[in-house]
Amino acid sequence: MPVVPSEMKEAVEDRAALEWAVSVGGVYVANDPFAVDLGARAGLSVDLGPVFEVGVDGTGWHDFSPPTEACVVLSRQVGIDACGVSPDVSYPESELSASIRFFPVSATLQHRWTGRLGLSVGVGVIHTLDDYNALQVRQTDPEYASTADQWLPTTSIGLLVDARHGVLGVRFRVDSVQHVEAINGGTLEMKTAFQLGAEAQLWW
Q: What 8-state DSSP symbol labels residue 36?
């Protein structure tokens, strides 16, 4: 029976072992000129080898947009969009996604830090709620209530930048997330959110 050198055995075991990471961070929707949506994100990832990773992320959103009622009323009075933009009449409440990540570029940085650049492709679901104040309708209106609370499928593609030192890491990411939403009781609207995120990671 052949004898395997200890160095080679350790290398094979290291390559076969899976690495896991938990992450927490924040995310901001950068391309909506009217809504100000900030979220808190938590995730779980598993590193499948030198260049592949899969993970799941959950995000809770909060809308910090200014009041829209006065803007909507004024727009109706003058017959044009007095706000300069069309008010977003719905906002995200929560989001769950799963993705596969590919890291073709990696490098060793100073002070034992390692870095890598990658792409992600994913699918998920998003929970949206209509803004009754912006719509200027009653919550009991059956036409608007039918689409006021929705769970919708999403697709996403993203760019990832990682830096890691031992079991600690940071990740910066830009994700383009798309979903089709029914608003105003039935109008379909395609939405694309450019999400900017930063996360702290713990690996084991």
A: -
